[in-house]
Amino acid sequence: MKKWSAYLVLGLVAFIACKEERVLPDQNAEADFEYIEVETPAGFPAIDYPMENRPTTERIELGRLLFHDARLSRDNTVSCASCHLASHSFADNEAQSVGVDGLRGDRNAPSLANVAYHPYFFMDGGVQTLERQVIAPLDNVLEMDHDIVEVSDELAQDELLNTLAQAAYGRNLDPFVLTRSIAAYERTLLSGDSPYDRYLQGDQFALTAEEKAGMELFFSERTQCGSCHSGFLLTDFSFNNIGLEEEYLDKGRRRVSGDESDNGKFKTPSLRNVALTAPYMHDGSLRTLEEVIDHFNSGGVDHDLKDDRIQQLNLTEEEQSQLKAFLLALTDKSFVTEALTAGN
Question: Of 57, 91, 295, 328, which residue is least crowded by CB atoms under 10 Å?
Answer without folding.
Answer: 57
